Amino acid sequence: xxxxxxxxxxxxxxxxxxxxxxxxxxxxxxxxxxxxxxxxxxxxxxxxxxxxxxxxxxxxxxxxxxxxxxxxxxxxxxxxxxxxxxxxxxxxxxxxxxxxxxxxxxxxxxxxxxx
Length: 115
Ligand code: FES
Fold this sequence. Notes:
It contains 1 helix and 10 strands, in the order βαβββββββββ. It is mostly beta strands.
């Protein structure tokens, strides 16, 4: 048996046609709002790495893509300053629920996000 029946299979969706296109379009350390279907994603590039989290702050719904990235690899919400780890989605003091995180993979033919 594999996971619970309610679990949806992951679907990989192409965001960019190449790694270079992603590096060219997404500035380092500057959160970017990306709409993928119905999902609003906050995409962050840190050097050569990309992170994707839900754009909606779990505290009060602010758009995290308007926030900043700090030295601890956290996205800082511009409204009340909650800090969410970009890898795990966890607010560092657990003042609100974890953010949803989305895997990113870089393949020879493009950069993909799993929803
Ligand atoms: S809405 Fe994000 S910290 Fe309050």
